[in-house]
Please model this.
Amino acid sequence: MLNRLYAVFVARNLEFYRDRAALAWNLLLPVLIIAGFAFIFGGQSNDLYKVGVLGGKDAHPLALFDVKYIEFIDYDDPDLAKTKIQRHQLDLLVDPVTQRYWINELSPTGYMAERLLLGQQSGEFERATVTGRPIRYVDWLIPGVLAMNMMFSALFGIGFVIVRYRKNGVLKRLKATPLQAVEFLTAQIISRLWVLTLVTCFVYIGTHFFLNFHMNGSYLTLLLIFILGCVSLVCLGLVVAARSSNEELANGLLNLLTWPMMLLSGVWFSLEGSSAIVQNLAYLLPLTHVTEAAREVMIDGASFFQVMDHILSLAGMSLLFLIIGTLLFKWE
Model:
């Protein structure tokens, strides 16, 4: 069994490494995305503002509350709200009762929100900045981009390839060998996990060298999160590829999975202030747990036990997707 599994594992790795275009794309795409966002958000402002209000808007009305196109979010915990400021999830934090506000000096949207606050209020407000090293937008963005690149490589690298094998008759020929379905699927998972881990580590090291982003937690915890994320996404790709023999259908199904995950998993923007339905729906997606856990480890320095809920969620999703994919899998 181990010999057969190892043979399929080696064959799949060689197939990937010999496709130079795919290999280069997997390495360069996330680097280009991160570099582009670092340039775009390095000095320009944004036109979407999120302002946290300690005690709620009803505690003490402010003229700022009447300004359009600003989303106000109530907070009771000052420390939590200040963390949101540091991580660019809030542009400004205001305490109407004590007439104080907090800002991240590296946030372009925070600067504009501050100008709006001071321009609307007649009284004096005391200014304060978040403590610790300020978090740049690119620091907040990098975990999501790494997770997104992992998602595309996992889903299309497994789902699309297996469908192509089935369409070209490769699976039909493998069925005539002693190779079992569980051995074939396990080899595919291990192969894609190996490739994704190497690619993600390479991209992480490369972007860190150029951008010097935050890493306050444990590298082992971060590696475990990425490995579990890879496994869950690869197993999800197996579900799509389990029976499909049409590449166009598989491509459509994979895109149907990837776009909601990109929009709802907090890769590009925070879901802070969105409806409870949207936030609960986001936690049904593996990419959300990978992105949030990676941010907590890299930016907040969270320990293994502090991200245990995300780890258990990813492990449970991996097992569920693997069982479904195995039960549905057919050779022809």
In short: The CA atoms of residues 100 and 319 lie 49 Å apart. Residues 49-129 form a domain with the D-Maltodextrin-Binding Protein; domain 2 fold (CATH 3.40.190).
